[in-house]
Specification:
The chain is α/β, with parallel strands linked by helices. It folds into two domains: 121 residues, Rossmann fold (3-Layer(aba) Sandwich); 105 residues, OB fold (Dihydrolipoamide Acetyltransferase, E2P) (Beta Barrel), CATH 2.40.50.1020. It is built from seven helices and 17 strands. It is elongated. The protein starts with a strand and ends with a helix.
C-alpha cells in the first residue's frame, strides 16, 4: 500500500480539530492526520518544515487569520480547504488558492465533496492515472448525459439492464446500461464488483463485516452483501489497495 496522504489541521478550537480528524478517519482512511495546531505561529513553524498534502485551515485563529499565515510563505503546494463561519470570506479564500471552503458547522456531505476535490487536484498535480478529464465518466440520461466525477461515486447497483449510481452528494443517477459495461471502465479506479448486483468504490468503503461472504458498509451507510465467490479476491484487493 502506498504512503498515506498527509493532512494538517489548523484550527483554534479543539472540538473543531477533533471533528475534522474524526471525519477523515471515518470517510477517508487513506488520509492520515499528520499534525494539528491552533495558531498562526504554530502553523508557521510546522509548515516551514513540512509540506502536507492537504491543509484544513480555519480563517479565524487565536493570534491572527489564515491569510496572515499564508502571507508568510511565497508559495504553498498543499491543497488548502478553508473553514469559516462567515461566507463573506469565500472570495478571499478563493483568491488565496483554496481547493474549497467549508462553512461552520461543517456538514459531512460538504466535507466529503471538498476533500474529494482536493484529492482530484493532488492526483492531477502528481500525474497519477485517472486525473483530469479521465477522472470523470459520462453517464447517459434521457435528456443527454451527466459528466460525473468518478471519486464522487460511492457505488453502482444493477437492476436488469439498468444501473443506478449512488453519489457522495446523496443524489443518484439511473442509466440504461448494464453494470458489466461500467465495471470494465471503473475497475482501474479502485472499484470492485463484490456481487452480481454491486460495484463499489473502495475509497468509500467504511467497514467489512465477516461472514460466509461477508458484508460491507459504505460511506452512504448502505450495507451490501459480498458474494462467497468474490470474498477472497475482495479481501486481497483491500490488502493491496493503492
Amino acid at each position: 500500500m502506498k504512503t498515506k496522504i498527509q493532512a494538517c489541521i489548523i484550527d483554534d478550537e479543539q472540538d473543531g480539530r477533533d471533528y475534522i480528524a474524526l471525519l477523515l478517519e471515518n470517510e477517508f482512511p487513506e488520509i492520515q492526520t499528520a499534525f494539528q495546531v491552533s495558531s498562526v505561529e504554530e502553523g508557521y513553524i510546522y509548515l516551514s518544515k513540512n509540506s502536507p498534502d492537504i491543509i484544513f485551515l480555519d480563517v479565524q485563529l487565536k493570534d491572527g487569520t489564515a491569510f496572515d499565515l499564508l502571507s508568510k510563505f511565497r508559495n504553498i503546494d498543499s491543497q488548502i480547504i478553508f473553514i469559516t463561519a462567515f461566507e463573506n470570506f469565500a472570495i478571499q479564500a478563493i483568491k488565496n488558492g483554496a481547493a474549497d471552503y467549508l462553512l461552520k458547522p461543517i456538514k459531512k456531505i460538504d466535507f466529503i465533496i471538498a476533500v474529494n476535490k482536493a484529492l482530484d487536484n493532488i492526483r492531477k498535480s502528481k500525474n497519477i492515472p485517472g486525473n483530469s478529464h479521465e477522472n470523470k465518466i459520462s453517464l447517459p440520461t434521457l435528456q443527454g448525459f451527466k459528466l460525473t466525477n468518478i471519486n464522487d461515486i460511492i457505488r453502482c447497483e444493477a437492476d436488469s439492464s439498468y444501473t443506478t449510481f449512488y453519489l457522495a452528494d446523496k443524489s443518484k443517477i439511473i442509466v440504461s446500461k448494464t453494470l458489466h459495461e461500467f465495471e470494465e471502465q471503473l475497475t482501474k479506479y479502485n472499484f470492485f464488483r463484490i456481487h452480481h448486483k454491486h460495484l463499489i468504490n473502495l475509497f468509500h468503503l467504511k467497514e467489512y463485516i465477516k461472514g460466509k461472504g461477508g458484508q460491507v458498509i459504505m460511506a452512504d451507510h448502505s450495507v451490501l452483501d459480498v458474494s462467497v465467490r468474490k470474498k477472497n479476491d475482495f479481501l486481497s484487493k483491500i490488502e493491496n489497495l493503492e
